Structures are given as structure tokens and as C-alpha cells.
Amino acid sequence: MHPNIKVAASIAAVIVIAVVGYNLLPGSSGIGGFGPAPTPVVTPAPTASPSPSPTPTPFPCEQATPCAGDLTAGHHRTSAFQPAVGYDVPVNWTNPRDKTNAYVLHAPSAPDHYIALYSHVAIPAQDTSCKVTRKTGVGNGVADWVNFLTKHPGLHATTPQSLTVGGYPAVRVTFTVAATWTQTCPNSVGPAVVDITNDATVPAYKEMVDDQTTSLTIVGVPGQTVLIEVQTGGSADQDAVWNMVKPVIDTMTFTPAS
Length: 258
What we know:
alpha+beta; 9-stranded antiparallel β-sheet
């Protein structure tokens, strides 16, 4: 055989042996096979964590006292105030204060316009420095309060109006500071008159009227005179404010202490 033919035959034999040997290797898939494709690894998508719910802002009760805060439309009752009072409000009213002797309701359209109920009250006397004591020689009934408000030299009062609140006799007096009154009090807006204090031997608080129009409805609840104060703030129309809050006052009921 020609030497070149021998070399070609040898090379061909080597190639055949190599191919056969490769196909006999474990995992082969036949001539020209590359084995099974690798199983793809699936990486799960990260789960999104829910955003934390915002913490609701507590209602800012006044004077660090408990209160009901935002009120739903319908019937409500005082919690701490005595005598206990039930009442109805429309939507968006709030209760920012509920103490044994003071309860406040704010109208939705004008926070300066409010209803404040006071019990355990006394007729005040103020000196030239606006220090307050209980007025001596007077009682605490409806007639006593009407006499005080209509005859105080620092107040200009309207004619008293008789009405009924919660089934009890009441009188409403509307007043402003008299033009001739010059005495001021700390933090007052111009001249001021203290119109309410409490019945402690040494009064612990005082309410005053300065630049606003105020009405007090004195209710003769048995065993406890209750004052319902309505303030307008500044020069607002007292009649318009009264017409707004009166439907709430008309629903009030009182539970006298037994």
C-alpha cells in the first residue's frame, strides 16, 4: 500500500475510535449529542412588604382632660361632667373638654363659636387687679345670676329671655362689656369682666368676657345650677350663632345627682 494511503487509513481509524469512545461516555445522547440541558434555577421575586399604616394623631383635648373628640352625628352623653347631660349633634361637632365642672362643644363651621356648660359655679367678684373671689351676700339660683348679669356696672346686657332646657326653667341673658368699663385682666383683649367662677372657698378658675358677645343660659337643675355659655368670638353675629347652636341645646337632658 502506498505510504500516504497507510497514513490516511491510520488517521481515519483513530477518528472512528475517538468518536465511538466519546459516544460511550456516561451521559451521552448519541452521535453529536450534548447531554440533557441543565434545569434552570428560578429565583422567586421578592415579596413587597406592606407600608405601615400611619399612626392617627390623638385629638387635642383641652387642659389635659379626657374628652370625646370628634363626635358622630347623633346622641351623646357627658362622661365626667356633673350633672350628666345627654344631647344630640349633627355631623362634624367636637368635644374638646369634659371635666366634672366644665364641658365644651365646638361648632364645625367656626371653632371660636362654642357651647360651654359649667356646674359647681359661683357668682364672682373681681378686684382692680382682676383677682377673683366669690361674691358675698348672694345666692346661686337662676334669679341671682340674672340679677348679677343685668346689674353689673361693667356689662351691657339684653332683656332676659325665659325658656326651658331639659324640662327645667331657664333664663338667657346676652351681654358685652360696657363701653364705660375700663378695668382689664391679664391676657384680656381690652377691658374685661369676670362673669363666672367656681364654688370652691378659694376659686380655682375664672371665665371672663372681653371683646366678644356672650350669652349665658342659667338652668335651674335641682341641686345644681348649670350655666350654658355661648360665645361668638369678636364681632360675630350673636343671633346667627345662637340659631346655629340652639338645636343642640334644645336636645339637652340633665340627670341630677341623687
